[in-house]
Design a protein that fits this description.
The chain has 282 residues and is an alpha/beta fold. The chain folds into 2 domains: 95 residues, Helicase, Ruva Protein, domain 3, CATH 1.10.8; 164 residues, Rossmann fold, CATH 3.40.50.300. Strands 2-3-4-1-5 form a 5-stranded parallel beta sheet, with helices on both faces. β3, α6 and β4 form a beta-alpha-beta unit. The radius of gyration is 22 Å and the shape is elongated.
Length: 282
Amino acid sequence: MYLEHFGLHELPFGITPDTGFTFVSSAHQEALATLLLGLEGGEGFLKVTGEVGTGKTLLARTLLDALRGHAVTAYVPNPHLSARELLRVLATELALALPRRAGTRELYEQVEAALLAHAHAGRRVVLVIDEAQALPPATLESLRLLSNLETGKCKLLQVVFFGQPEFDAVLCHPGCRSLASRIAFAAELRPLPGTDFERYLAHRLRVAGWRGPPLFSAAAAWLLRRASGGVPRRANILAHKSLMLAYGEGAWQVGLRRAWLALRDDRRTLRPGAAPALGATA
């Protein structure tokens, strides 16, 4: 790989969310501030939507880090669960010891008791749900019922949804209208604008250990942004392939030609019967 060639200590453009590489774009900064403000105000439901690859999971993990020490948190990365399954996951996240065959009613009562105990101790409980568009309407309704639990001063459970734009269609389901009406704070993650894109590339390289001049020329960065639409995950794939090309040619910078070759290779991988991709031969 190209790590030694460029003097890096880790891959700068991985597609697995890593809070160590968090880049605070204007959209992410606005969304995080919105969430923290809403949670501090005691709101029961908040949501963040964005297209695939815009950084929702990374923002969810950033939020969890920001809440550490200030709230009890539970994280559900895969919410394609029945109401009972979600209650059990929440119970597990709250460290409750429950019989394997506990029924829905028992789960609900135990979770309610735990939430009350945290509230009386002055602790907020925040449930963060990723990929919220996969939530069945019946499970959303169970969350609404949980949100009805409150003391005279606060909600026992606050829920933050992270989902693709399809989540808004889920909320339009007749059985979800009551919950949808309770979402007081919402944010949308948009692709990186041109003013942020070059800073994004430079930031990830700097975190990975690069200390030299810009590795991507202005023209290469422009092409990568146009090709990725400013979507971070897509940009990471193209930037990674561009660096592999530069390494293969013994070069120290990615110019417009190498960025274009990376884009061409990436398009081949999307077509059946295409020639081997860079990763197969490097």
